[in-house]
Amino acid sequence: MICSTCAGDQFEHDPENLDAAIRCAGCDRIYTREQLIAENGEMIESALDDMKADVVDHARKTFRNAFRGSKYIRVK
Q1: Statement: residue 75 has pLDDT above 80
Q2: Is 64 helix (H, G, I), strand (E, B) or coil?
Q3: Please, are residues 3 and 27 in contact by the beta-carbon 8 Å criterion?
Q4: What is the domain count for the chain?
Q5: What are the beta bridge partners of residue 17?
Q6: Which domain holds residue 51?
Q7: Has residue 23 been placed in a domain?
Q8: pTM, whole model, 2 decimals?
């Protein structure tokens, strides 16, 4: 997450209360959880897409190695 005001990535919040305000440590701007997620939506989607690609690659390699000796099962 990045602050849209100062581009800082350090935030203070109460981890036990999801509805509590989130404060940027750099500029003291106060966010709600929803505001912070909305302002960082593109970055979150990009990170999620990267993770999905990594998981698919890892699964493909794992299955390919697991079935390497089989002449009946091929992994593309």
Answers
A1: no
A2: helix
A3: yes
A4: 1
A5: none
A6: 11-66
A7: yes
A8: 0.62
